[in-house]
Amino acid sequence: MVNAQIERIRNAWNRLSMNQRVAVIAVVITAVMALGLLIATRPPQRYGIAFSGLSSEDAAAIVENLRAQGIPYELSSDGGTIRVPADQVAAVRLDAASQGLPRGGSDGFELFDKSSLGLTDFTQRVNYQRAIEGELERTIAKIDAVEAARVHIVIPEESLFIEEQQPTTAAVVLKLKSGRQLTEAQIRGITHLVSGAVPNLQPENLTVIDNTGNPIWSGPDGGSQFAGLDERFRLQQAYEQNLERQLQALVNPIAGPGHAVVRVSATLNWDERSSQSEIYSPDGLQPQVRSQQEREQRTSGTVTETGGVPGVDENVQTFPETPGAGSQSESSSREVTTNYELSRRIEEVVQAPGQVQRLSVAVMLDGSQVDPAVAQEIQDVISAAAGLVPQRGDTITVTAVPFSDVGNRELIPDGGTPILEYALTALKVLGLIAIPLVALYFARRVLVKPEDAGELTPALATVGGPAVTEPPMPALATQRITISETPPQLEDEDPSQSTDRGLPQLPAHLQVIELANTDPAQVAQLLRAWMSEEQ
């Protein structure tokens, strides 16, 4: 069967002319080169990160698993990151998780799964301590900003006397991800996690440092390295971004979207102040009377003057008394006692931290799209909207400069695949479809070998012969005609006369014209056959 096919191909090849063979070879070489070009320019396979921050043991186990499954992978120079094809990342992670990988560098409570009989009590305590350390390392390493963690615990033996009992201590070493920092809440969360997982461990006996040796936590008294700075920075950044959004929304209708940029820099005062004041008779009002007591006393009478000189009776003649010889007296007193309510007001004012101390606003306008004449109007609007106070030192700057159009020519949309890559992929697919079609078209034109149909008619073979009508030839058949420059003449015929068996004795070009007039279909078919032979 195979030999028959090979023989058939060989016979078909032998029937081809030299031009046809050259054309076939050229088509095959072109198709192979096009296919090789498509393969060479094929975009590389996309790889995604399946695991990062691996220990040497975990990386070796995962690589061995990938090799066993025949999955291609890439290993970073430090051996801690493994990349696999992007469409297999999820499957590789699930498969590794089913095998307990990655283990996180240190063994946890699985230490007791492979323990043997005859272990001493000391060995059991050490394994228990190692298990706690390993579990804590795995848990801490899952925090977003932490790449790896090491936990060291010191659990002293219990003493019979309380005063001789040594406290439990622990130390945590964190390796943070590049450019990441722990927040105050995360630091406290780590300290509470460790102190809650280790028996008799107090937060003041825990120390947390980073991989550069800087202390992150040194107990409640020492606080953390950041001491609330991270929270203050977050609040300040949130205030600036919120104000920027408001001002940007105000400028966009004037300058147009994408033709203005607003930036705000705020200085906040984080000092906390409190003041207390005591005010009597507030607002100048009359004090309120609590009680009032009033007492009034009035006296009146007559004073008479009668009698003589004390002593012996006088030898004086006595006369009768005359009435109305005395004087009148009158007195009065008034006493008022008023008790007022104690009019006093105590005020305690606490100034919360985070007051705006200074604002700086910068506005950049696209000078090629925005009229610089409106810069002053924009500055006035921004100043009023932001609540700038010049006495406080607030400043605003509005500048109009031409923007670069690099961003407008960006071919990569946010979060998507580059448009140029999509276009190249589409062109390659079209090329894979078009190249075989073009090759098939030319091969069909070349491989169809024209059949020699002989002369078209005896009249064309010998111009003076009789005309013979033949059936029409197939469309792809090639017909040949031979026209003599000097047509042969019969011995007993006059060249100037026509015979009833053929064409008149005319020049060759006139004979062709006459044939085209009498049978244009055959002439057109003949011309198509000639054109096919030339191609």
Automatic annotation (TrEMBL):
Family: Belongs to the FliF family.
Lipid bilayer topology: Multi-pass membrane protein
Transmembrane segments: 21-40
Protein name: Flagellar M-ring protein
GO MF annotations in UniProt: cytoskeletal motor activity
Domain of life: Bacteria
Chain spans, region Disordered: 274-336
The organism of origin for this protein: Sphaerobacter thermophilus (strain ATCC 49802 / DSM 20745 / KCCM 41009 / NCIMB 13125 / S 6022)
Alphabetical keyword list: Bacterial flagellum, Cell membrane, Cell projection, Cilium, Flagellum, Membrane, Transmembrane, Transmembrane helix
Localization per record: Bacterial flagellum basal body; Cell membrane
Signal peptide: none
Flagellar M-ring N-terminal domain mapped to chain residues: 46-215
Any Gene Ontology CC annotation: plasma membrane
One biological process term in Gene Ontology: bacterial-type flagellum-dependent cell motility
Task performed by this protein: The M ring may be actively involved in energy transduction.
Flagellar M-ring C-terminal domain ranges (all copies): 252-403
Positions with biased composition (Polar residues): 315-336
